[in-house]
Design a protein that fits this description.
extended, about 170 residues, 2 strands, mainly alpha
């Protein structure tokens, strides 16, 4: 658990429940990025450690930007810039999919859970049924087709009975 020195925060201390090594790691990444950009010392609203705490509070606690800005004595736009700089630094340091899968394989893992969009598919772009549904002969609305998935023909406010396939759940 990291507690920063007292500041504008109403409680006196800003606390984030992470190990100090985590904050120092992110702080080192931020420092390296500032050196890469050629940022001079004392030209930023927050130091690397304080910015790392701001970023980790947003990730871990979901603290709102307005509250983060007030707690750290900076403006809202500056808080957004600090946050997004940190996200960019972390994203640049993260392994890509092939590196992560190779590391998992070397570690002997038999299963890997992937989170997020990995492979774009066109499964959603499959054409809808051509059977007329509630929207008329031009309709390809699959919601209307799904709502008419009775095994028996039904006549409703749409007019003549039609058969519609059941929703594809695979």
């Amino acid at each position: 658990m990291i507690a920063e020195r007292p500041g504008p925060c109403p409680t006196g201390f800003r606390v984030v429940d992470v190990r100090r090594e985590t904050v120092l790691f992110l702080s080192a990444l931020l420092h390296a990025e500032r050196r890469r950009r050629g940022t001079r010392r004392g030209r930023r609203a927050l130091g690397c450690f304080t910015q790392a705490v701001l970023i980790l509070r947003w990730f871990c606690d979901g603290t709102r930007i307005r509250q983060l800005a007030a707690d750290h004595g900076i403006g809202g736009k500056t808080a957004y810039r600090c946050l997004h700089e940190g996200i960019d630094v972390l994203a640049a340091h993260a392994p890509d999919l092939h590196q992560a899968l190779n590391a998992a394989q070397k570690a002997g893992l038999t299963h890997v859970t992937l989170d997020g969009i990995v492979i774009a598919t066109d499964r959603v772009a499959t054409p809808a049924p051509t059977v007329p549904t509630c929207g008329g002969p031009e309709s390809t609305n699959t919601t209307a087709a799904t709502s008419r998935s009775s095994p028996l023909p039904t006549a409703g406010p749409c007019g003549s009975p039609t058969y519609a396939p059941a929703a594809n759940t695979t």
